[in-house]
Structure formats: C-alpha cells, structure tokens
Design goal:
- Strand 6 and strand 7 form a beta hairpin.
- By secondary structure, this protein is an alpha/beta fold.
- The chain has a 4-stranded parallel sheet with strand order 5-4-1-8, covered by helices on one side. Strands 2-3 form a two-stranded antiparallel sheet. A two-stranded antiparallel ribbon has the order 6-7.
- The longest helix is centred in the middle third of the chain and has 14 residues.
- It has a single domain, classed as UDP-N-acetylmuramoyl-L-alanine:D-glutamate ligase.
Length: 138
C-alpha cells in the first residue's frame, strides 16, 4: 500500500530563460506535489496522471531521477502545459496554453493506487472528473 498517491496531470511548460531559448520543463501542481513528498523522504508514494507520447520518456526519466519508483500514466493525445513570460514588473504570467491532457476518471486508475492511505488531488485544469469526486465523497 502506498502512503501517499498524488493524482493530477503533470505539465510541461515553458518559462523565460536568460540562457537562450526556453524549453518545456516539468511543472504543475501534481509534479510539484510528488517532488515535495520525495524531498521530505516519503518513499512509499506514487503519481497518477495523463500525459502524451511527446513527453512520456522525459517524464519517466525525471521521475526516476527524483527517486519516484511508482507512477501510472493514463494515455493522452497531448501533454498539458503553458507558455509563461515575465512581465515588466518581474511576475510570471501565462502567455498561452500549449496543450490540455486528458481527464482522469476513477475507472482508469488501478485499485492499488486508489487504496492508498492518502490520496492528494492535485489538478491543474479540472482534469479530475465529477464521477471521481463523487467516488471520493462516497
């Protein structure tokens, strides 16, 4: 059994860079959530989310490097993400949406992840469907 499972779509967004052309970087609430849990030495954790083929290998490599042994990927036609720019006052602002990954339904997630001691819902763009929310409430 997992101690904590984070459920939400990982994002690959672009951020301004002083080092040339920005590239897409793993980001978003679910990614930050699992990274924080791992940095706090929670080793019985997992992340569940939708991601497209375009970033699947990179995503798995990053999770491995972070020390996250467990994850479950729901197939998506595209990977979610945003393009950010730095405003004149230095704040990051969204310029445009680069993609929206598939919704996450409770029926798509194996029981081993749903039976975790703690489930953290960490959506970025309302990807957790109503049936999933109802399942949690029941």
């Amino acid at each position: 059994m997992y101690e904590v499972v984070v459920i939400g779509n990982p994002e690959f967004s672009t951020f301004p860079s002083s080092q040339g052309e920005p590239s897409r970087t793993l980001s978003g609430p679910a990614a930050y959530g699992i990274k924080t849990l791992l940095e706090m030495n929670h080793r019985h954790t997992a992340i569940v989310g939708s991601i497209g083929e375009d970033f699947r290998d990179e995503y798995q490599h990053i999770l491995s490097r972070l020390g996250s042994p467990e994850h479950f990927i729901i197939d998506s036609k595209t990977t979610g993400g945003f393009e950010y720019f730095q405003s004149v006052n230095g704040e990051l602002q969204v310029n445009r949406c680069l993609g929206v990954a598939s919704k996450i339904g409770v029926k798509e997630i194996p029981d081993e992840f749903l039976s975790s001691r703690t489930v953290v819902l960490s959506p970025m763009l309302q990807e957790i469907d109503d049936e999933f929310i109802q399942w949690i409430c029941d």
